[in-house]
Amino acid sequence: MTLGLMAGLLFTPLAWAVLTLLVDFRKGRVVTWLGMAVQMLVSLGLWAVVASDGGFLYLLGGWQAPLGIELRVDGLAVTFVLLTAVVAAACGWHASIYLDPDKAWHRYFWPLFWFLWAGLNAVWLGGDLFNLYVGLELISLAAVGLVALGGQADALRAAIRYLMAALLGSLAYLLGVALIYGQFGTLSLAGVTALLNSAEVPAGLSFALVLMLLGLALKTALFPMHGWLPPAHGIAKSPVSALLSALVVKASFYIAARLWLDLGGHLGSYALAQLIGALGGIAVIWGSWLAFRQVKLKQVVAYSSVAQIGYLFLLFPLTWGVSDAISLQAQQGITLQVISHALAKAAMFLSAGNLIMSVGSNRVDALAGVSRFLPFSLFSFGLAGVSLMGLPPTGGFAAKWLLLQASLASGQWWWLGVLLAGGLLSAAYVFRVYQASFIDDTDIDHFFHPSRSLEVIPMILALLSLGLGLMAEPVLSVMSLPFEAGRGQ
Amino acid sequence: MTLSTLMPVFALLTSLLASVVIFALPERGYRLRTVINLAAAGLKIVLVGVMIWGVAQGREYEFAFNMVPSAEFVLRADALSMLFAGLSALLWLLTTIYAVGYLEDSPNRSRFFGFFSLCVASTMGIALAGNLFTFFLFYEMLTLSTYPLVVHRGTPKALRAGRNYLVYTLTGGAVLLLAIAWLHGLVGDLRFQEGGHFAGVDPSLHGPLTIIFVLLITGLGVKAALVPLHGWLPQAMVAPAPVSALLHAVAVVKAGAFGIIRVVFEVYGLEAAEAMGLLTGLALVAAFTIIYGSTRALYQIDLKRRLAFSTISQVAYIVLGLCLFGPLGVTGGLVHLVHQGIMKITLFFCAGNYAETLGVHRIDELDGAGKRMPGTSVAFTLGAFGMIGAPPLAGFITKWTMGSGALAVGMDWVVAVLVLSSLLNAAYFLPIVHRLWFAEQHQAWPHERRWGRLETSAWLLWPPLITAVLMVLAGILANVPFSPLSWVELIVAREAAL
Amino acid sequence: MFASAPFVLLAVLLPLVSVLLALRTSWQQAYRYCLPILPMPALLVGLLAGSDWGLELPGLLLGGLWGVDELRRVFLLLTAALWLTCGVFAIGYLKDHNLRRFCVFWALTLAGNLGLVMAQDVASFYSFFALMTFAGYGLVVHEGTEQANRAGRVYLAMAVVGEMAILAGLLMAVQLAGSGLLMDLPAAIAVADRRWLIMLLLLAGFGVKAGLPLLHFWLPLAHPVAPTPASAVLSGAMIKAGLLGWLVTLPFGEVSLPAWGDALVMVGAVGALGGAALGLLQARPKAVLAYSSISQMGLMTLMVAAALASSEHSVVIFAVVALYVLHHGLAKGSLFLSTAMALPPGRWQRWAMWLFIALPGLALAGLPFTSGAMAKLAMKDVLKPSGLGFTLAAYLPALMTAGAIATMLLIWRFLWAFGADARTGTNSPGLWLGWASATVSSLLLFWWLPLPPGLPVKPWFAVMQAQAWSLLWPVLVATLLAGVAWQIAQRRK
Fold it and tell me: Do the chains A and C touch each other, judged by at least 3 C-beta pairs below 8 angstroms?
């Protein structure tokens, strides 16, 4: 059972990637629907298995590390797998209606989409540094391709820029990996951790960690390395932007977080933790402020991602040198933030896409009257916004609550300011959009009305993000299930 | 999951589901929307009524589950929550009736009623919340659901008011969140409990608890419009009349006041708060707010603005009552929660009627309106006298109990504040009453509409008349069981018993 | 039967419920004819229910108790009777303009006035007092003239301040007494630490209504501008509500307060003489009467002062005060009503009319064999300086005599002003009936009304004969002075 699920999870995306490569957009769409259904079921099944029996270590092909591929199937990983399935399916579904099938280059959307999905699953489950790298590269390349699908010169320019950043990040990461490998002779995270625990930490090895984190931070667009993100996310097609903001940046962060939690205790330092946290804090404030200043709707949403990603980096200071309970609280908070941001941001980009399609302009001030004639899309946008603001009862709030608790308990009260100010600033940019849409200066409905399913998809995502807050406890309980090594081979 | 567990949930869901259904309805479904609205409001009254009866018999209704690790979502019906829930259920029905008439033929009704129901759901949640965490949940939900109502008209003025409203309330919300989180970190998840938690608390905690108290009151004080956090309120009156009525009478300002009540009573506990010396400062703020609001109201020429400043002043009564830390003063403050609601909603309904029927917004345009709209004007007059505290209306009961309470604990200066505020109230309400009844109409009404035989649409006329009657009854029959005063006495007795 | 709950409630509620007649414009004529009916149940209660009954209304306000004792019975009789006659008068007097509004405020004021007399708990008493005050505003400004509005503003401003003083005083008293019943207040106030403050607040608060000097500014403005039947009840009945307020709250009979007695005597003297002096300067007949009311209230204040100063006399003094109230109320009502009467064309009728206009006035001055004579004698009887132990008591007889002279002067001034102002013409039946019944009740019915039982029992008729000269000479002196003044005035022309 488990074996089948794992196989399904890992190979469906790759198989579908190849399949869709062979057909045009319209056929690819039909094929993809099927694949999404399979993927969804598999993810759900795996999640259910882990939720009932606990996590396990899975060795691909039965070979032991370092030769084989080692997969960690724990509660957190399956939760992210499921999240990926939900968000990617939503985006894929949206894209299948949203994208114009008559543009020739759109046929590449599906293969790229599936490669991306495969890469994501690889990252969530990856147990050693090199596999993680492979997954990450897969994601990056697919993402760059997707951005380039925008088609115009601007899109290509943004894609190139994105590619540069991604490569640079990979390079730094790889360098760090090489240093680790040189020191310990293993790439398995568990192995490295075990060695670190047993032996004296060689001086200078912190540099490896810093290098890896630097590379990953660049890929995650942490301030001040965020320059590539807004153009790329802003210019891409809306479903693509949603995928990028919701999932892609989370992949690199996920790796960074795992490195930190496993190795940070030995290789990190208080100063490093605080520095990363501070960068995250600045990202929250600066990103929100820039989001508030944007005139284009999608740029607002893109800068909002910069800000929201900033929150994630509070993980570093809040887990370094604190008690396990506080660390757990912080981890739970960050996990919730990842999930709720993924859902909310996807919802926001998709509904922003709908709005732009309806008003025929991507400017915020073109939204006047939308509230009257397109309340549904606006409502999804708003609900997603509520989660970004961290207002109850959304997942964003639950995350913020846990982070507040962790900051208070660890005595690092300065993060309170970031958390609260960030919420207020995000309210500022969300409500700016709302306000524009409430201007009631026309009695004629001159808007294009997107099809019902286009409107429903972001609504579902937004509602999930809302429900996450109410259901945070059960969701978190799956994530923290005990991990049993060696089972399920 | 017995029925008594689920009762609070049902009470919440009636308006929540109504809101969802209404959002889904097409703009044209006028009749169906009205039916749903009224049915939900009626159902809620029944549910709340059943719970009130049960609570009076000593039954408990509670629903709880863990939402976030270490933080519970608790809905609970106790005597205090029923005071607020009863008020909001009752006034929701009336306001819905009024709003149906008020928004006849205007655009965006679906949106309006959807958020309107959401707003009431939040209010119900605030009433039923069993701990600060849950309270905060609904408190912020209220902010969000009222924003679209405030900016409903979509004019630049409305949008500006909405922005201001958000700046104030969201900032207040952030401060509140900080305080709640801090408190939570300090002492864990605290359910509201009669008599409070901090009766014999470790003196080393006094310092942080004091700071948290100040933060809590600041966060809540924004909505309760305590000076100097009141700036949003007078501007928010650009909203349509039913919204202003709801905002001022039950929803927003009361949410703040109710929160302060919960914090002082059931988190800190009156005695502990007094022992830590937290209440004197609060009393001074409230007293200042009372006088300040009344004084500012004197200078307003726009009717709704005058009413708005009056609200600032009146809501501070509730807070002041709490700070009198004797059972009588507390009774006065609590009962004003209901009384002020009924009185202020009457006044706003009437102001809306003048605006909608005659196009009158300014006070000096009201000359002779009593003859044209006697029903509305009678209601307005009663409301105004109630606000002044003229007996035997509801406002008098408040003033009397609060005054007695103040004297009982030797805070005589409070009586002076009450008297001064009454004088100011008289000074800004009586001229309006004079204009209504005794001034001759000297110009045509700015924008008159006719509704056949009645002075205005029946939808608009009945709600203020009903609330006016309620206000009179709340005063005259104050000593009858289940009157606001008797209910509050029950609450206070239960608080004191522990 | 008449003291039963339904009937008492009817007596108070009838005027309140009558407001429903204002729902339709077409009912306003019917409402006009209902005005005299409104106080009738209350009159029946006053006449037939006897005194010392109580009615508990536990659900009302903060727990209600209504009832009538000997003192209140007199107030009730006066109030009901005067409102009844004035109601009859109003039928003829009122014009159709704003008729509905007038009737509503009339009924509300009446309800307040009746209710406050019967209320024995603080909350209802204060409620009815406020109702009367605020509804009375509607009567004052009814004419809608600039003058009326100004009078109304002053009335309202002072009334609200007065209400607040009362509220504060009552709050403190109730707090000390631990009871919401009026009868428990005096004892509590008597022993209060801040007795001075409570008493000051109550004296001033009720003093506004009673037209105490310096608190009286509204009175000469408001009484004259109101429609005549309203002026009559304002000056005849409502002004007494302030007095009743004093009588039921201040610590009479509990403790002797000579200092307060002295102070109040001074205030009363200023009111009695100063009011008269100012009244003499007035040209409008109703203004003269308004100042006369201030002057008369000053005289009553003297009695209040005496009662306050010597606790053992307070019961008797109360009875005399009640008598005086009854007498003054009826006479003043009649006088006010007469200002709206037109003189008949025929010579004899004219003289008869003058006579009946003047007689209640003469009664005020204490002409023998009038109600005033009895009141004056009784007052003299109780204010004998020998029994009263406070400094200024010695001046009381002189003050009373001066008061009588001043009163008579004012009456001459009134008649003079009235003569200058009077129209010749016909009066509608309503006017005739109202004025006649007021005059008759002042001159004749007074003697059949149940008098306060605390009054010293005396063969009043014989006493009047015996004291005729002492009663008459102030009247004559005043008449002489008036004659001189008239001569001077004539010569100047």
Answer: no
Over range B94-119, report the average pLDDT. Answer: 87
**Tens digits of residue pLDDT in C281-338:** 998 999 999 999 999 999 999 999 999 888 888 888 898 999 999 999 999 999 999 9
Q: Is B255 on the interface with A (CB under 8 A)?
A: no
pLDDT single digits (tens) C451-490: 777 777 677 788 888 888 888 888 899 999 999 988 998 8
pLDDT band at A488 (very low <50, low <70, confident <90, very high): very low
Whether residue A487 has pLDDT greater than 70: no
Domain segments of chain A: what residues? 270-479
Q: Which chains touch B (3 or more CB pairs under 8 A)?
A: A, C
CA distance A303 to chain B (A): 21
Q: Measuring CA to CA, which residue among B198, B207, B205, B251 is closest to residue B225?
A: B251
**Chain B residues near residue C141 by CB distance under 8 angstroms:** 434, 438
> Number of structural domains, chain C?
1
Whether A contacts B, i.e. 3 or more CB pairs less than 8 A apart, is yes
CB-based contact, B438 to chain C, within 8 Å: yes
In this complex, do B174 and A441 lie within 8 Å of one another by their Cβ atoms? Answer: no
Considering only CA atoms, which of B315, B252, B259 is closest in space to residue B119? Answer: B252
Range of C386's domain? 5-492
Most A-contacting residue of B9, B68, B108 (CB-CB within 10 A), to test interface: B68
* Among A389, A393, A427, beta carbon nearest to B137: A393
- Per-residue 3-state assignment (H helix, E strand, C coil) for chain A: CHHHHHHHHHHHHHHHHHHHHCCCHHHHHHHHHHHHHHHHHHHHHHHHHHHHHCEEEEEECCCCCCCCEEEEECHHHHHHHHHHHHHHHHHHHHHHHHCCCCCHHHHHHHHHHHHHHHHHHHHHHECEHHHHHHHHHHHHHHHHHHHHCCCCHHHHHHHHHHHHHHHHHHHHHHHHHHHHHHHHCCCEHHHHHHHHHHCCCCCCCHHHHHHHHHHHHHHHCCCCCCCCHHHHHHHCCHHHHHHHHHHHHHHHHHHHHHHHHHHHHHHCCHHHHHHHHHHHHHHHHHHHHHHHHCCEHHHHHHHHHHHHHHHHCCHHHHHCCCCHHHHHHHHHHHHHHHHHHHHHHHHHHHHHHHHHHHHCCCEHHHHCCHHHHCHHHHHHHHHHHHHHHCCCCCHHHHHHHHHHHHHHHCCCCHHHHHHHHHHHHHHHHHHHHHHHHHCCCCCCCCCCCCCHHHHHHHHHHHHHHHHHHHCHHHHHHHHCCCEECCCCC
What's the mean per-residue pLDDT of chain B? 88
Phi, psi dihedrals of residue B302, rounded to the nearest 5°: -85, 130
- Which of C59, C101, C174 lies nearest to residue B404, judging by beta carbons? C174
CB contact under 8 A, B392 and C62: no
Residues of B in contact with C61 (CB under 8 A): 391-392, 397, 475-476, 478-479
Position B497 scores a pLDDT of 67
The answer to whether the Cβ–Cβ distance between A371 and B111 falls below 8 Å is yes
- Our CA-based measurement puts residue B429 at a distance from the nearest CA of chain C, in whole angstroms, of 12
**B67 in helix, strand or coil?**
strand
pLDDT digits (tens, 9 = 90+) for B34-46: 899 899 999 999 9
Q: Do C144 and B440 touch (CB under 8 A)?
A: yes
Q: What mean pLDDT is reported for chain A? A: 86
Name every residue whose Cβ is closer than 8 Å to that of residue A469 and which is 6 or more positions away in sequence.
Answer: A340, A387, A392, A393, A394, A395, A396, A397, A398, B67, B68
Residue B1 has pLDDT above 80, yes or no: no
Q: With bands split at pLDDT 50, 70 and 90, how would you rate the model's confidence at B462?
A: very high
